[in-house]
Amino acid sequence: MAIGEIIKYFRERNGLTQGQLGEGICTPTHVSKIENGKTAYSFEIISMFSERLQIDIEKEMASFQEIEKQLNDWHNAIIMKRMKLVEEYKKDLESIPYISSSKYAYFFRLLQARYCLLHEDGEKAYTIVQQIQKEYQSLSVFERNLLLHIKGIYYLFYHEGSENQQKAIQVLKEINIEDYGNPEYYYDLAVAYHFIDSKVMSYLYCEKALRHFKKTNNFLQAFNAESLMLLQIGSNRYNDFKETEERYNNLIRDSEILGASNKKGMLLNNLGYEYSRRKEYSKAQKCFSQALKISDRFTSTYLLRFYNYVDTSIKGELLRKSVLLKKAREGLSLAKQLENRFYQLLFKIHIYYLQDQMEQYYVYLEEKAFPYFKSSKHVICLKRYGKELYTYYNETGQPLKALQISNVFMNNIE
Description:
The chain is mainly alpha-helical. About 75% of the residues lie in helices and about 0% in strands.
């Protein structure tokens, strides 16, 4: 079969018909059967084909037989986030001329989609997914599960709101681990459950992911899994936060030893979130500030951490109002550049607040921000600003609006 695919590729590249390739050698029908792996062939025929096509068939066969191993190696490098190897395997695979017309074509395209997600190019990844989805019936069971995993990651990280996080959960739970053999997706399930505030399910899948990452020596992803577990533990007021804090600091030191600055940034951000929840705003601000220093500025990651820094500084009154206002405007500008509607709303809320424009503040909450939080099911923002609006309506003699906001709030939190 492999030799037929090679012959077909080079025949088409040379602009020859099956009749032209087989002229003086064999019939067009026999050429077709060889190309489709439906007949035996002699070494003499293949040698004459190779001479006519001007290729070294033994060299091409050796290269073809390495494709599956190279694809698996590329997949593993992506999973492990070994970026140098990821780029090397990508370059090697893309240099194989017939890979996109071989039996490995779908696997190759799916890994290209995962590569795009790794580089935060969700739009290009989704274009590939849509193309492959049309060929679903032609995929192997492994490829179908890989497709589900990629779709789950896409819904999880490239669409805002818990509606898409629910989609991610639905898609990821369709994966058959026996056919897929890649428990890495448990981590993505844990993240999805975390986003919808399902702490028990998030912790459960984090544990499964952590066992897998430790077993495969995937230390960087183990950091992610353990950090996410700490977020679930930290939300429980009955747990000893000192122990949680110590675990965070140990992980931060480990990430420094390994030179994993992106993991260090994530851990600092999460620890800052825990401090902020406990109203230890000065400690939280310090964590967010350190996380920002090791973040690429024009990214969604930087935008998240910058918002956390500004929000904590406002809550703790840690900077002058004029400085905070300048930073909130800076955050709004960055959110616009990144076309991030969610953070545009949040920074605009802070700007109204810092300018003491409380009438506009509540109008903006009511007409712009809260409807968005409701439609996209941002649970944390629904809780925070739903309570603010409810209190405001009660204090200003608007009991009907207070009742309406209460109903919206309760229906979306449940």
